[in-house]
Amino acid sequence: MYYMWPVTSDLEQGGRPGSVSWIDSCALVRLGSVMRKEIMQEFALRMSEAFIHGKDDEGNALLEELMDRQDVTSPPDDPRRGNFAFYAGDKEVGDLNGLAFAGIHLGFVVLEKSDHIASSLRQRLFDQTLRECLAGYDGHFRGSGQGFAGEPMPRWWQSNIWFLATAGRLMMARALGRDDHIDIARQRLSDARGYTERYGMGEYNSPTYLGDQLHGLHFCWYYAPDEAFRLDAAALLDDMYLDLAEHYHPVSRAMAGTWSRHYEQDVEGARRFRRSTDAAFGERDPSSLGRFGLDDYRCPESLRAIAHAEDPYMVHRRHLNDVRRTLYQAPEYSLGTQSGRHVFYVSGTAVNVTYVAPNHARHVA
């Protein structure tokens, strides 16, 4: 497949009008002509944006709609209980990942914009919605089968959902004073760090999901209940940004090397991905949650230096299922190769060449 997109674009001006976070958009690339229904990521982001920009009436209307999309009638042992319908207009929960994507935005509104929540929604929100969400996180893990080495799904190497669910659970547990669920979040994050140290990153160098992973981990770092929790989050963030720094091609401002998990239509995601690379490695270095009015972990200067290395270098990485990656990075081009069978149902690229042409960054995969 041959991919091409402009180096300069509207994304340099902040991307989609009204966008709040440069990492949100990485998950929104299956919209438009490809996806005819609004997905939960976009819906929940609109709710957060409304409250952030002082549009309380709109925010509360979206909040109420979100609450109405929650399954509160299925039996308690049904994995759908407490989860949200993933697509706009759906009446029932299908994709169990809806809660993971909605939870961080719901947690943000509850923790940071509580005074703006309508009194007519407050009691239901705290007495039912948030409590059902905590049960929903348990149901999600309980109801999705068993993954690698017997651990529950979503598997640790489906790290975008793992991190988002961990962050959402943590945020709601803090809002409700539920130390038991804070302990579960603590264990989930510790497990992810242990698995990553042993097997390598799960969704490495992914145009589709790296932004979601960063989003979840940044919220984990910001709302960490103690220093040990924050250190686990920071260690995982360091790993993520190291992977990003090594595969950042500064001349084209694009992702180089082979990808773990992506969809053909997510080629546009590499273009959107410049929001994260520009923010982490560009002239500006905002907090990733800064557009939410929060201040958090910043990419270390040592990793920024890697991203802007002027001399050619090579990177070798090994992952679960004996996936092996090699990247040769030079100013004019990069060559990435990958061998082994990736664990995801969407395979990563085997070879990816990035090179620079006038006004364009080009990828041949």
Task: Briefly summarize what is shown.
With 365 residues, the protein is an alpha+beta fold. It is 44% helix and 12% strand. The protein is globular and about 60 Å long.
Task: Write a structural description.
The protein starts with a strand and ends with a strand. α8 runs parallel beside α11. The strands form two sheets. The protein has a six-stranded antiparallel β-sheet with strand order 1-8-7-6-5-4. With 365 residues, it is of the alpha+beta class. Helices cover 44% and strands 12% of the residues. It is globular, with a radius of gyration of 20 Å.
Q: Which structural class do you get from the secondary structure elements?
A: alpha+beta
Shape category: globular
The low-confidence runs, each spanning 5 or more residues with pLDDT under 50, are 1-36, 145-153
Question: How many angstroms separate the termini?
Answer: 6 Å
Beta fraction of the residues?
5-15%
Sheet bearing the most strands, described?
6 strands, antiparallel
Question: Radius of gyration from the CA trace?
Answer: 20 Å
Strand order of the largest sheet: 1-8-7-6-5-4
